[in-house]
Amino acid sequence: MAVYKVTVATGDMVEAGTKNSISITLVGSYGESRQTTISFLFLPGKEKSLSVHCEQDLGPIVLIRLHKWRLFLEDAWFCKDVRVTAPNGTLYRFPCYQWLEGVTTVEVREGSGKKLVDDKLQILKEHRHQELAARQEAYRWKNFAQGWPRCLNVDSVFELDSNIQFSRIRANSFTGFLIFQGASHFLSGFLLRRTSWNSLDEMRTIFSRTQGRDIGGCL
Questions:
Q1: Which of 6, 30, 86, 144 could connect to 59 by a Cys-Cys bridge, CB 3.0–4.6 Å?
Q2: SS3 108
Q3: How confident is the model over 6-57, as pLDDT tens digits?
Q4: Which of 36-50, 63-77, 142-156, 158-172 has the lowest mean pLDDT?
Q5: Beta-carbon neighbour count of residue 26 at 10 Å?
Q6: Is 189 exposed, middle or buried (0-12, 13-18, 19+ CB in 10 A)?
Q7: Is 147 assigned to a binding site?
Q8: Which of 65, 84, 74, 64 lies closest to 21 in space, CA to CA?
Q9: What is the CA radius of gyration of the chain?
Q10: What average pLDDT does this structure show over 131-159?
């Protein structure tokens, strides 16, 4: 019996967690594990740990499969990364950083940077081919007008996959944060101040501790 320790991290952005069921399959060079349920509840910025029991050693873990399914309502999940510790203590990292939506299975390669010629296993070659085909399907191009650069063949950014929209989601979050901070500074008298600061400590009273340290490092 071989026991693998698995840690799954959820992203820290708003609504990154899910109440849908998530399970995992470990794929090694010698074989793969059975599908093992991780949890039915994931909170933003939190980690879940579990043990995956296998009848034999799987060898080096080359990729993982994350399975998502729902009982009733759809609840998208943003997976940050997965870490797998083998029985011999070897740690494998699987950076994910993507949304899982609907009933789906996502394969994630081990995080070591490798070229095409480094893929000796057939399963890794097939994964690279499928990933390329998915990217070609997602990024289809069209000519907007004669003489103009080519652009994505969509009418709206909302037609794109959620993972392609990710930068837009983050931009909206930053915009909301800036509006909140601006309102806070206005109410505290920061934006209406007509005189110079008396000291650096006075400036720190406006900002958070982290922002205060940043200001102190720059002055």
A1: 30
A2: strand
A3: 999 999 988 899 999 999 999 999 999 999 999 889 999 999 999 999 999 9
A4: 158-172
A5: 26
A6: exposed
A7: no
A8: 74
A9: 23
A10: 78
What's the whole-number mean pLDDT along residues 86-109? 94
Identify the DSSP state of 219.
Answer: -
Hey, what CATH class is 2-112 in? mainly beta
Task: Say which residue the tokens 């490798």 belong to.
Answer: 114
Quick one: DSSP state of residue 59? -
The string of pLDDT tens digits covering residues 178-201 is 665 666 555 555 555 667 777 777
pTM of the model: 0.66
| Residue with the two structure tokens 């969509």 | 154
17 marked as binding residue: yes
The size of the chain, in residues, is 219
DSSP state of 121: S
What is d(CA 112, CA 44) in angstroms, rounded to the nearest whole number?
A: 26
Separation CA 9–CA 47 (nearest Å): 4
Q: Are 42 and 17 in contact (CB under 8 A)?
A: yes
Is the pLDDT confidence value at 135 over 70? Answer: yes
9 is in an annotated binding site: no
